Structure formats: structure tokens, C-alpha cells
Amino acid sequence: MNLKLILVSSTLVNKIRIFFTRKGNSLLPFLVILCASTSGYGQMNISGKPGLMYVPSASETKEGNFQFGINYNPINYGFRFNKKNSENIYFINVTIVPRLEVNVNLLRINNEKINGQKGIGDRQIDFKYLILKEKKYQPSLALIISAPFGIDNSLTTNALVATKSFKLSGKLAAEVTAGLGSPYYIQRDDSEKDNYNIFQDLKFRKKKELAYYYLSGPIGGVNFKYANKGGLMVEWDSQHLNIGAYGTLFKRWTIQAGVINFDQITFGTSYALNLKTLPKRLKKANEN
Amino acid sequence: MKISTLLSGIFLFLGISPVFAQSDSTLAKRKSLWLNYENTTLDPLNGRIYYEQRLDRNPLYGLLEMRKSLADNNIHEYLPMFQGIIIGKYKLGSKITASVPTLEERQNQRIKFFPHPSRYKFDFWIQPLFSAVFGYRKQTLQSNTSVLLQTQFYLWQGMVLNAGILFPITNDMNSHPKIIRPAPVFLNQFYAFGKNFISASAGYFYNDQYGVNVQYRHTDMTNPWSFGAEAGLTGYYYYPRGGIYAGPLDQLFLQADVAYRLTQPDITLKLSGGQYLWKDRGVRVDFVKQFTNVEIGLYAMKTVNGATAGFNFAIPIPPGKILQGQNARLRTTDQFRWEYSYTRGFQIGERYRTGYALDQKLRQYHTNYLNSQREN
């Protein structure tokens, strides 16, 4: 009986130990705050695309990669009503086929001053196509386009970016992103009352005419990654210099924060899944 | 003293039982997997198994778990059915292959069906319904949400009566009273011959339309091409307090489509067109990606009433099986579909839904889809 008890308790202890070691590993980046992601899991930019804080990257994501989350954008850098409202941005990003990512995001303002001003929020669908995959001497190259069909696009991304990863030492790597954001955006000049043709009244507008804009002109940044556990970031979003950090827990859950223009704080969180991974039930049945 | 003997007995039992109970537990597992199936017929002479599996939208679950459940190496052909009709003949090798059942094979199964109407469980499932209009500033989210408890009665081969109860949760999209009422009640006949499939429905459908609807599709589970047509004549209905209102049958719905399944990347492109509800006419392009449990689509359409685009998805609602016995089952739906459109309220390319759409049902059985899931 004693023997049985010892056996049972030792397996229990083992399980607990395994649990703690896992947790320990995941908590490590929070202590070190150095961190990355080769699988595409990790830091998402303000509109929910793999990248830095505001700058999207061209890093490759696996087919079926599915990430959802929420980001907070501070009042002074508000896209919708600049200097009047801070914003929450909800997003889903799916790698629907290899090389093609679809991003759906919803921007909602906080503390609306006029009743009904907020609405359900601004919905936006963006596409990212990976033109080149990263190779030994070749950076990955991606084109990101916002579908211009929304009536009032305040959070658009039209950019060409390149990303290259450099191994620094052991688990430490630097992911460098550089690109060009379009100084123009497409606006659909319709009201809600005659919104029946999404291809109608599309007009090129200068971003400079907006109260606030970003990703207009040269953009870039570096993500210093520690394995797939976390990272430190610095970026130029075409208007401001921003710094930030993130950590990934349990391989799937990312928590991130940054300082915009050494002024106000942005933060967010996201969770990653893969829709192609076989569920346990199928995996078991497939093995037979 | 007594307690310690009891405890030691339990520990001893726990310690030893997994060793010699290995085969018992796999047997129990097989039996519990077997419970997921209905209308099963073993044909050891020809090495075949006929079965129906309503729990999961993805037929790969049914195929692979059947193989596991049988553990019989002599069975090498799997014939999954839908509403008692064979969809195809499948073989599970390193690749899944499919062939078309002959008329004789289909007739054989038909004969077997009649003397055993009780081969199906009483199957009840919980189905949420959600439609919404976004963006009117006065009321940002106008929605119509309800939960349905649904079931099906198998009348004869291929013929099913769909029925249920609808529990309303929210409704600020129209003035219909929020009363507990019948869920869509309609008959559906599914039929197959060669590579041709038909789904014919009559009754009270989803999206407030009643009438008749017939869908036809030509598809080979190994060929990338497929095409189909659909026709319907319906009218508006709803449940006022204490009755039912049904307007005239004035909606003619006519569609034709052609679809092509690419292998690299693994997506389906579909071009469809014709007349939609409210006499709107136009064309629509769909881009469909089928993942294991989730289907995601993007679409764009141009009609007389306007032009729009958006996305849609289909997901199963967890946890799936809630209670299951030999004769009855309670589960959550295997399919919740939702579509988002950039525009609203201009009657652009609108449609109603019957229980399942034939092309959505059949593309799940394509061998490329089944094989793509096992490539990981």
C-alpha cells in the first residue's frame, strides 16, 4: 500500500513539477523582458497584424494561423477623433492560404461625448500578400492593402514592407522591418443613406489632410526577440518614434505594451490558434 | 484498519487495472465511438460499412472514427450517407480515395432502409440564430437573436421533416412579437444518382420565407469542377400573436453556379448568378477556404440594386455532444453560419436559407478537402 501511495504521489509531484517548469519558462521573459516568433505567433500591431506597435512586418505566417485580440490606442494619437477620444481596436487575423492574410478589425472610440457618435465602430478588412519569403540573403516582402469599401476609414494600412531576421546569439534575434507607407488613401465618399455600391465614389485622398495619420512615407523598426517568448521593440511609424515590449505566455497568449512618442501608452493582448491543426479527436483517429 | 485495507484495495485495483484492462478500455472506446453513428450496415461479404454521422459537419470525423471503431481489417470501403442516401464510396489508404456508387448499390441500401425506420436516434440540437444590422447611429446594433431546439424525423429514405421550437432573445429589427414559436418547419428530400444530387424542400424556411425550393448539383468528389442550379418560389411569413401570417407566393429565386476547387492553394472559387429575393438580379463571386472545423469565405457581388462584398464563416458550436444514448441524443449544432456585408438595407443579392445548402454540404466530402487535413 505504501508503495502504491508513493507511486501515486510521485506521479502527482511530477505533474506539478512539469506544470511549474512550463510556467517558469513562460514567465521568464517578463523578468528578462527580451523576446520573438518564427511561427507567426506573437506581437501584433495596432490594427492586428504581425509586426511592431504601429508598423506591420512582412514576416511569414503559417496557413491556418488565427489570431484575435484587442489593442488600446491613446487619446493624443487617436485615429478617429484625434485628441478627443482614445480607442479600442478589436481584431482577427487569419492566414487563409499560404502567403495571404486577411485582417478584420473594428475600431471603437472610448468615452463618447455625443450619444450615438460611437456607433458600432469602424469596420475594416485588410489583406496582406507575401510577395517574397525570407531566405538566407533575402528579406521577406509583403504588400498590405486596406479594402477601400468602408465609408469612413480611419485606420487604413497601405504599405509595402520588408523584414529580415538576424541571429544575434543563442536564442536572441533581431527582426528588422523597413518599408514605405502610402501617403495617399482611398476614401469612399458616400453617406449611410446611399451606401449601396461599394465600388462607387472612390477617391484618392492625401493622408496629410487628416487630423491624424501614420504609415505615410518611410517606416521601420527592430524587434529584439528572445526565442518565441518575448521581445523589445523600437520603431518609426513615419510620424513618431515608439518603443515597446511584449511577452508570450503558454506559446499562444501575447501581452504587449509600448510608449508612443515618449508621451502616451498603448497596450494590448492577443491569442493565437491554428485552424489547420488537427483537433485531438481527429489526431487520435488518424493514428488508428 | 478497515479503512486502510479498503484503501489499499482501491490503490491495488487502480494500480493493476490499467495493465490488464487495456483491451477492455479500447473495447469501451470502440463502443462509445460506435454510438456516434446511425443507420449502420455492416457488409462483411463485400468488406463494406454503410453509416450516417450527424454529429460533425466534417465527414473526416465519421470516416476515421469508423475505422477506429471497427478495428476490422476486412472492412475497406466506407459509404457515408446523408439522410439515408449514400454520398460516395471511400477508401482509407495513405490517401483517401472516392468512387461513385452504382445505381444497384444505392438500391441495395434503399431496400435495407425500409424495414428499419428506427435506425435513427431521436436527435435534438441547440442552434443559435443571429442576424444584425450595424451602423445606424441611433441604435448601433439592431439584432434578431434566438435559440432553437431542433430535431428531424426521418420519414423515408432521403425524406426528413425538420422541426423545432424557437426561443427569441432579442429583436429590434422588425415589429414581430417576441413569442416562443415553431422553428422553421419544412420537409426535405435528398436524392442522388451517379454524380448528381438533389435537395428539394417545402415548408416554412429561415429568413421569413415559406414555399418550395429545389437545388441541384453535379459533382464528383475527386474532380475540381462542379456546377449547380437552384429554383424557389416563396412568400413572406411570420408569427403574429395567436397565429401565422403568410403572404402571397411572389418571390421567384433562380440561380446557377459553377465552382472550381484549386489544389495549390487549397480553395474553392465559385461564380454564381441569377435572380435573388426582391427581384434583384446579378452575379456573385465566392472564395471559400475549408479548414478542419471552420469554413471561411470572402465574397463580392454586383446586382441591379447595388454592389457589395464581405465575408462569411461556418463554425460548430462547442461542446458538440452533450448527452448520447442508444436511441436519443442532445447536442449543440454542427454548423453555425454567419455572413457580414459591407452594405445594409438595400436588398442586394439577398436570399433565404433552407436547412443546408447543397454545395456547402457536398464540398465537405471532396477527397482533396479530406486529404488536405491529414497532410500536417
Task: Describe what you observe in this structure.
The complex is a heterodimer of chains A (288) and B (376). Chain A has helices at residues 2-32, 280-287; strands spanning 65-73, 87-97, 100-109, 122-132, 140-146, 159-169, 172-181, 184-188, 202-206, 217-226, 230-236, 241-249, 253-260, 264-274. Mean pLDDT of chain A is 83; it is low at 1-39. In chain A, a hairpin with a 4-residue loop joins strand 11 and strand 12 (241-249). In chain A, the strands form 2 sheets. A 12-stranded antiparallel beta barrel of chain A has the order 1-2-3-4-5-6-7-10-11-12-13-14. Helices cover 14% and strands 43% of the residues of chain A. Chain A has a single domain (28-287), classed as monomeric porin ompg (Porin), CATH 2.40.160.40. Chain A is built from 2 helices and 14 strands, in the order H-E-E-E-E-E-E-E-E-E-E-E-E-E-E-H. With 288 residues, chain A is mainly beta. In chain B, strand 20 and strand 21 form a beta hairpin. Chain B has 2 domains: 2-118, no CATH class; 119-373, no CATH class. Chain B has a 16-stranded mixed β-sheet that branches. Chain B has a 4-stranded mixed β-sheet with strand order 1-2-3-4. With 376 residues, chain B is an alpha+beta fold. Helix content of chain B is 18%, strand content 48%. The longest helix of chain B has 19 residues, at 2-20. Chain B is globular. Classes of the chains: A mainly beta (288), B alpha+beta (376). The A-B interface holds A 1, 4-5, 7-8, 63-64, 94, 96-100, 102, 104, 116-120, 123, 125, 147, 149-150, 192, 195-200, 275-279, 281-282, 284-286, 288 and B 4, 7-8, 11-12, 14-15, 60-61, 64-65, 67-68, 134-138, 140-141, 265-267, 289, 291-294, 296, 298, 302, 305-309, 311, 340, 342-344, 346, 348, 373-374, 376.
